[in-house]
Write a structure and sequence with these properties.
Organism: Mariprofundus ferrinatatus
Structural class: alpha/beta
GO molecular function, one term: UDP-glucuronate 4-epimerase activity
Shape: globular
Oligomer: single chain
Strand content: 15-25%
CATH class of the largest domain: Alpha Beta
Distance between the termini: 45 Å
CATH topology of the largest domain: Rossmann fold
Radius of gyration: 19 Å
Strand order of the largest sheet: 3-2-1-4-5-6-11
Largest sheet: 7 strands, parallel
Protein name: UDP-glucuronate 4-epimerase
Pfam families: Epimerase
EC number: 5.1.3.6
């Protein structure tokens, strides 16, 4: 029997979509998640219910910060490859709950690395974040840019993950690839993300908060494009060469940043409702603009996002109305 694949954070937004595509290939997939209450647990359970319809899917309720539970999973299941998406997400949440980030993003990541070492994994793909670029002024962000000055604890933990994975790739030889995600959106998304909160408030006739008075840009990337990139990378582990170990970092975004104002206008159009807006200054830990340089991932894997913001938000709005029966 072919060894299963492991996806951590399987009940998460990106995790569910990645699992679905792997299962559609006919692969055996193990999913783990701790189903914490950072946001609505019922949404996570609904995502899991979709996955459990597939015969090739098995789920384990595990917190990655639990060393013994993670070690036992790797010992008994021996996954051949790992896509590590579990993490404590969110920049703003880290301002008040720092220990959650240390537990999940640092301790949890060490546990996953140790598991991969124990089974001599064929490839570990792990989630980093565009937040590692901090307040870098040069746009678009390139993987060769310095990322030594994070402006949030969340960003600092993601930079730490990149360093930790590099050391394991160097010491133990298993291939590691980190993906710096840029503002992922779409159906089954995270309620803590701005576009999700905007939608809820707009349909409820409530005020939405526009930070930095709308003078912001984001490289919004539709979920299907993200999953396409994740799997292209997953299928092609890096090899060690004279430049270093089998370790790579890639931006994975849209390479087409949108003004926050236009994003809100498009959301109003697809919802058919005008938003009530209030302007606020920039929040601590936030950045004015993000823009992914996709030269490297496009060269190596032919990755090229195809979903426009108009098409992507329309699909999200349709899903939202259906799921929440609006």
């Amino acid at each position: 029997m072919t060894a299963p694949l492991l996806v951590t954070g399987a009940a998460g937004f990106i995790g569910m979509h990645v699992c679905e595509q792997l299962l559609n290939r006919g692969l055996q997939v193990i999913g783990i998640d701790n189903l914490n209450d950072y946001y609505d647990v019922s949404l996570k359970e609904a995502r899991l219910a979709r996955l459990k319809k597939h015969k090739g899917f098995r789920f384990f309720l595990i917190d990655i910060s639990d060393r013994d539970a993670v070690a036992n999973l790797f010992k008994t299941e021996k996954p051949s490859r790992v896509i590590h998406l579990a993490a404590q997400a969110g920049v703003r949440y880290s301002l008040e709950h720092p220990h959650a980030y240390a537990d999940s993003n640092l301790t949890g990541f060490v546990n996953i690395l140790e598991g991969c070492r124990a089974v001599d994994a064929e490839h570990l793909v792990f989630a980093s974040s565009s937040s590692v670029y901090g307040s870098n002024k040069k746009l678009p962000y390139s993987e060769s840019d310095p990322v030594d000055h994070p402006i949030s604890l969340y960003a600092a933990t993601k930079k730490a993950n990149e360093l930790m994975a590099h050391s394991y790739a160097h010491l133990y030889g298993f291939p590691c690839t980190g993906l710096r995600f840029f503002t992922v959106y779409g159906p089954w998304g995270r309620p803590d993300m701005a576009y999700f909160g905007f939608t809820r408030a707009i349909l409820a006739g409530e005020t939405i908060k526009i930070f930095n008075h709308g003078d912001m840009q984001r490289d919004f990337t539709y979920i299907d494009d993200i999953v396409d990139g994740v799997l292209k990378v997953f299928d092609n582990p890096p090899e060690a060469d004279e430049a270093g170990p089998a370790y790579r970092i890639y931006n994975i975004g849209n390479d087409h940043p949108e003004r926050l104002g236009y994003f809100v206008e498009t959301l109003e159009n697809v919802l058919g409702v005008e938003a009530i807006k209030e302007m606020y200054p920039m929040q601590p830990g936030d950045v004015q603009s993000t823009h992914a340089d996709l030269t490297k991932i496009r060269r190596d894997f032919g990755f090229s996002p195809t979903t426009s913001i108009e098409e992507g938000l329309k699909k999200f709005a349709d899903w939202y109305r259906g799921y929440y029966k609006c």
